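Protein in question quoted in full.
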Amino acid sequence: MKLTFRIHYYTQWGQQMALSGSLPEMGSNVLDKVLLLEYQEEGFWEAVIELENAPATFSYRYLILDSAKGAVTEEWGDLRQIEIEPDAKQLWIRDAWRTHSDDANVFYSSAFVKAIFKPKSFSKVKRLNKPDDHVSIHFQMDTPIVPPGLQLGVIGNIEELGNWNKSTPLLLNNNQHPRWEAAIHFPKYRVGSIEYKYCFYNPSDKKVEVIEGGGNRQLLMQTLFDKDHIIVADQNFTHPKGPW
């Protein structure tokens, strides 16, 4: 099995992105045996791992190694957890760096997640089997703050994301709150890009109430043709009226 990790982060001189995790190829969580990422272009870093016997699950986190200062900076938050689908042969993971300076980090404490901002439960929807000429795209968003009674969704420029129709976005489940997630099956050989945003959906009125601000998020379709599973792990819902 082939695992590809991709993350966007602008480093400074002397800095190097790395992965530490439970897989032996990541150093088995030993910091002096981390896996170094290779710089690609425009702030993107990438690492590829070939696994003969892939585990059902593994965990990892990103690090910044600073040779100029002799320092190691771990990203904020708990270890990232990945479940590998039984039929996966090519898994591509696009992550976002979790900064320690994010004002929203305070809302991940147990007081907020388990009590103050605990949302209504939205269960996972059973999916059909994936055709061989399709790729499974798994959208993830970690956000502890969702307005009461609303559900997080993804709306975008393809049929599977509603074609920007506010009545038919992809609805995410929160079985692992504060993570929201859902997957689509998408033809591998389309051209162009998937443009999308996260949104707050009202299940009572059956329509989107709020679409996040800022530019569209993007996934280039040229990255899909040789993959069978993709995880898009996004961070930080962009509130159109600014941070809460």
Remarks:
- The radius of gyration is 18 Å.
- Helices lie at 110-116.
